[in-house]
Fold:
Amino acid sequence: MAALLASYADDKTEDGRSRLVRHGYLPEREVMTGIGPVPVKMPHVQDRGAGAEKVRFTSAILPPYLRKAKSIEELLPWLYLKGISSGDFQEALAALLGPNAAGLSPTTISRLKTVWWDEYEHWQRRDLGARRIVYIWADGVYFQPRMAEEKQCVLVVIGADEWGRKEVLGLTDGYRESTQSWRELLLDLKRRGFTRASELAIGDGVLGFWAALREVSGNTRSSSAWVKSDWAMDPGSGV
Structure:
């Protein structure tokens, strides 16, 4: 707020008054945080200028309509994946954040699930053509989502550029770690622009990935450009 007012300090109205001034607060609202609900009031400004476009103050840490802190936003998907049903979120949040925690209606949870799915599909369609990936790391991760009886295999491909910056390039649920499942994931990466062969591919000893990699990489690189490795990845080493 102080920075905004300072940037308009020289702007005056026709009668010589400051154009932008403090003007109390917006109505108080509660924001759900990791320590429970916290009441907050955001300062408000008044633009006395005669222009059609009014200057408004927007807080970077308190966006309009924000009701949940980022930590809570990240907590909700985990609760859902752990098997909490849409109607039990109020009880779960009360147990975690205290009895005064505001519950979320089943309708709100259903809306959030739709948002999560839309974000995932948008991420899955993003263009990879501009990335220069030096090496990739592939593995199948097994976990048991929600109330499923059997563990599900999710195939993951992580890439790193020449500066060592890592990102998840793609992931999909697969039938264990079969060649067909890996082929579909690698072909999807290729369709989205990941066409330049990496210098190094790292994975475990499962043959499905290596068979699919040889098929999808084609003649863009000789087989010696793809190095199979059974290195043990040390999570603490940063590799």
